[in-house]
Amino acid sequence: MAADRQDLRLTGSGQAADAYDRAIEHLIRFQPAVADAAAKSAAVDCWHPASTRSTTCTLLEGALRAGQLDLAAALVSERLSVREGSTYAWSKRAFLLAATGDTAGAAAAAGREVELAAEVRAAADGPLPV
Length: 130
Prior knowledge:
Layout: H1 2-8, H2 14-40, H3 44-66, H4 69-82, H5 87-99, H6 103-125
């Protein structure tokens, strides 16, 4: 995995990737606190989805840039278990599958992303709710 990690770092710099590694360590500790605080909040519907999504997306992007593919794959799976219709998560799943050589799986994930995006566009073009 170390060779894979080195090849898949998006930063091009070992020093920058190490910074992502350190950031990931902090975010992993922070992520449960966000979910816990949101669950206890009276305004849970207002900020829980956005705050946990942004923390997860930040952590996922950091994992990808640091080459931590196992962590990235786990975060994508977690995101899809919560929101199967996430085009973002499907695009990241496609990237991860392609990076590991699973071209058929990557094509299927990319296809699902395109399908969901088309559904969103079709819904946006439909009649406005009253």
